[in-house]
Write a structure and sequence with these properties.
Structural class: mainly alpha
Length: about 70
């Protein structure tokens, strides 16, 4: 049973990481093409929020496994 749970959690964590990587890549591309300073600052804020949300989700996943 633990192998099944760990396997499912591993796949879930992998899908979360893939989604995070795709979101970050998109935000970074938008940041590079942003012309105005306010747009750049907004994208930097979005990047920081996305990173924080991802860390929180992974912590929660790890906590729930143990």
């Amino acid at each position: 049973m633990p192998g099944i749970i760990a396997g499912g959690a591993g796949r879930y964590a992998e899908s979360l990481q893939t989604e995070f990587d795709e979101n970050m890549q998109q935000l970074e591309q938008q940041l590079q093409s942003a012309a105005s300073l306010p747009a750049q600052e907004d994208l930097k804020r979005q990047i920081a929020e996305t990173e924080a949300r991802h860390r929180k989700t992974l912590k929660s996943l790890c906590y729930n496994l143990y």
